[in-house]
TrEMBL record:
It comes from the Bacteria. GO terms for cellular component: plasma membrane. The chain crosses the membrane at residues 60-93, 257-276. Keywords: Cell membrane, Membrane, Transmembrane, Transmembrane helix. It is a multi-pass membrane protein. The keyword Hydrolase does not apply. It is found in: Cell membrane. It comes from Solirubrobacter pauli. InterPro entries: T2SS_GspF_dom. Residues 113-234 form the Type II secretion system protein GspF domain. This is Tight adherence protein B.
Amino acid sequence: MAVPLAFLAAVAAVVGVWELLAAVERTRVAATVRHVLAPLVRAGTEGASPTSQERRRLGVLAAVALAAAGGLLGGVTLAVLAGVAGPTIATALVTARRRRFRAALTQAAPAVARALADALGAGHSVRGALGVVATGIPGPAGHELARAARALALGAPTVEVLERLRGRANAPAWDAIVAGVLLQREAGGDLPTLLRDLAAAVETAARQDRDAIAATAQARFTARIVLVLPLGAALLGELGRPGLLAGLVANPVSASMTAFALLLQLVALVSVARLTRNVTR
């Protein structure tokens, strides 16, 4: 008899939680959370940078959420540390999503160049070609092209729209596309062929970048392992002999040597990051 009752209780609990979530979604709490998280979503879908007020809201939300999680897991100390790290983590998330947006723009540059070449070859002008291509390119590139097409439809100058598009993309491939279009406007020439050649060159450069990342992957992974080994050894020593780390800090000689070792670790970490920056960016 106890097993069926326990099963019915579990089913009732699931139904109750489901109804509670549905009720919360209908309240202003869910709307407020969506409003606060909207800048984070736009950073990944539109590449938009949050305003100062939106950054403060994201920081407060991250601090409260992390402090609550830290309090449940490790008490007051972990809650305070997690809460303090909340604004930094929120800023890092926004930056990462904007970086992913720009990376998607860069990856789509060859497809955009070829689509523009096809539209121009079919008889469209540059203004008309941007509108045609915007309907067929998905993702961040499609969003930026649609934005440019709307500006052109409202009467904005072509040069201004293209320069704004180039600035938002902030990538050499898009710089070359815009430069080619503007050069053709001034000097003439076979723009479709130029765009197709440009697309092939960008794809070749991207393939070379991927080859470089693959060639250096083992070395970068080994460097990170070597950097983490001292921390792992310290944790194992603390597990094998509790109080070891406290003793190191209490002794002035060992504390100074530990601080110097951490400084060298930081220098090594920065050096590895700078050496691999041009490969992994």
